[in-house]
Amino acid sequence: MSANNLLSLPFKATDQVRTPAQPPAASSPHPPLGSLNSQVATLADQVVAHIAATSETTHPDLVRPDAHAWQHLRDRIFAAPTGAVPLLSQATLSDLTAYYAQLTFVLTKLPANISVSFPWYPLYTSPSPLPSASGAFPTVSPALSLPNLEYERLSVLYNLAALHAALGTERRRSDEAGIKAAIAAYQNAAGVLSHLLTLLPRLKSSLEGLPPPTDLTAACISALRDLCLAQAQEVAWQKAVMDRLKNGTVAKIALRVAELYQQARDSAESARNGTETSPPFAFPDEVLRYLAIKAAHFAGVAQYRRSLDDLGANRYGDELGRLQLADQKLKEAAGLSKRGVPEAVVHDMKVGGYSTPKSLHKIVTENLTRATKDNDLIYLATPTPPSSLPPIVSAALAKPTLAPELLDPLSHLHAGAGGLGRPFLEALIPREAGEVLALWDDRKKMRLEEGVLRPAKELDAAAAKTLADLNLPAALEATQQPLGVPPTLLEKSTAVQAEGGLERLETMMQDVRRVAKVNQKMLQESNELLDQEAETDAAHRSGHGTMRWTRPPSDESAAPLRQRAEQLVGLLGAAGESDSLVRNKFGEWEEAIRILAGGQPTLARAIPSSTVSATALPPRKLATIRQLRASLDQLSDLRAARARIVDAARTGVAQADIRDKVLREAERRAAQRKEGEGEGVGLADFEGLLEAEGERVMQPYEEEIRRSGARQEDLLNEIKVLNDSFVDAGQSDSATHEREQALQHFDTAASKYHEMLTNLQEGLRFYADLSKLLGELRDACKSFTYARSAEAQDLSRALSAPPPLASASPAPTVEVTPPDTLAVPIPSRSSRSSQQTDGTPRSTRTSARTRAAGATSAGTPTRRTARAAAQVPTAAEEGPREEQAPRTRAQVEEPAPTPAAAGGWDPSQGIRFG
């Protein structure tokens, strides 16, 4: 038989996670829920559906096997469909530990609030009115279902503590092995509950301001933790008595037992009363009585044992004072109600009637009588009052212990030896990690633009402007090659031909005009939809009267859509101005580009020849020309090398993938973040990683661009000096000057061609991005007008119906609000006049949570012979009795009905028109 003068913790019962299956949308690419039963969606079905609906980076089929493994593990632990509690076994202990670790890992992948609800019954309640095994009728209570993973995880963790405590209560404490096992079990239970206390802030923050479950509060869990510690200390006290330790030592151990029981009682009373942040929890009266009896009993035990120590040290006044105090405490315990308290505990309080000849109270009474008589006849010492007694320093032998698998569960989630199994949902990219990866893509593109692309463009533009101001290389080529087309200009002509020449620019401008008209038409359709809805609403309001047509007017309901349309109108206007600038530039350079694209024959006809031969130039000028040509060639090579750096940077940035690092960091931070910060990991936590990775990827390219810029500055200064020498060496004739101007004109035309090509490409990308936003706006306007139309029909039908016989409240007002999903980033065009509207898509989900209320729940001897006659009880006399303890299990919920609301028209009010 097992000792039952100690209490087990109540288990937290649950139901299997099952909900009615929802039919999938006709266009849904995913299989329907409830593959085994078309009428029921299991836990696995709901998890897969949630991931399919919320994850943009992970296909639900990748996590489907893990979702089924999750369901299988939960159903194995809580086997009954309703009111299930864990079985008392070591195997269940391992399963609960593994499930807690899996939930901890899942919380690194999913937010705490998900679309899967987990039902759990409050402590000390039952889903059934049937009596328990002990014959008691428990409080009937429905389950509290919350769509919250922290709620599931903490409920599992609590059951792990309850299972440890139950295994400790089941142990026989008649030998040393049983005592050690019981102490370890209660200490493990206390350790688990202490860990649960540190996790409660996470649950509270994840509930978004709602009160936490009544049984998962700090006061409630503290009471149960101190109860487990008190019972572990009591078993340690039992061993101290069995080992016949000194009375002073036993007194210290017993006092700590009393302190822990009193702490548990105080916390239970605090939980009953509730706080500003925690709802009250109805601790059962029998539990409070048990704690009060135990606290008073062991306070008496401690004083009695210390009185024996005082007797041995001839402290007769202290002995009398402590015996009086022990008698007072034991009388206090005996005077408390025993209803619902384990019989073995009641037996400890009784006098006689069981196999033990004397109870502790009887022994204390007899010792007090003897000591009083001895003192009156022999010692005449004044009994020490309680306030003057030297305090007993308690000795704590029990302490909370926590298994490494619970302290650091993620490090034990592996399929190897000693592991808790492979993590569930390992393939799922967490929401926070997905946001970080999206931010990484934006950051690296931005840094590429700011650190490489823009500086490279600015350097190229600076070089081109300097050469144009110096009329180079046209002046040099006109002098060096007085006849024909210079090779550098032929290269640029070939490049223009390869890009498609003038025809490509004309085609792209037509495409830009076409997509601009399409975008303008989409915006016009959106405005027309809103205008039509406003006209319809105004007609209804006029027909029924403003006093009766109570829904919000169109200009108020459609304000967000109107505002969004105005923003897009501004963007289209700015884009149109940019398009006009490109068309004007095209008209200015069209003829030059046509000649340039014609190749060597057309260029030769368009470029005049010079009459001065290069061989007739002075030697000084020839030397300057050679030096200047060498510097220009170096500048050309430098620009080509810079273009290769830009291409390498584009490739490197595109290939820079930090997904694995982000996932590892997200899991590490989610597991090690400070308690009470709530679920998930913020983007700010990854700033260090993003900065370091950005520096690693971009720093080499940025350094190359900086060196290229410094080298270009030196070359341009050198070219300016050489050009001054070239000009000073001799003046060109008019023919040479005309040739210089022609060469410079066609060189500039090549630059303008590539500039317009870039502008048109950016314009097409801009309109493509803008068309997505305009399509979303048009769809939102269609949905808005459809909903408003249906609402108007219902309201009009209600107002036009014959009045009912009985008066009722006015027709209900339903407000249709436009969706907030249009607040998305607006595309920008770097080389155009653009307008940037910063918007971030946000979706607010409000989870309805149902809260279920918890239950309220001898002669005249000499002093030498008196010492020998002092009676020292055994451990059995002071405390434990052995008897089989009954176990109770909770069952299922019945949701409360929701009252219906009435509505209608009151004929007594008549019909009023606004």
From TrEMBL:
Q: Which InterPro entries match?
A: ALIX_V_dom, BRO1_dom, BRO1_sf
One Gene Ontology cellular component term attached to this UniProt record is: endosome
Name of the protein in question: BRO1 domain-containing protein
- What organism does this protein naturally occur in? Rhodotorula paludigena
Question: Which residues fall in a compositionally biased region of kind Basic and acidic residues?
Answer: 878-892
> What PANTHER family is this protein classified in?
PCD6 INTERACTING PROTEIN-RELATED, PROGRAMMED CELL DEATH 6-INTERACTING PROTEIN
Give the UniProt family note. Belongs to the palA/RIM20 family.
Q: What is the lineage of its organism?
A: Eukaryota, Fungi, Dikarya, Basidiomycota, Pucciniomycotina
Composition-biased stretches, type Low complexity, lie in 798-812, 828-876
* Short name of one Pfam family: ALIX_LYPXL_bnd
Name the domain of life: Eukaryota
Instruction: Locate the region Disordered.
Output: 535-560, 798-914
Which PROSITE patterns does this one have?
A: BRO1
| Start and end residues of each BRO1 domain | 5-446
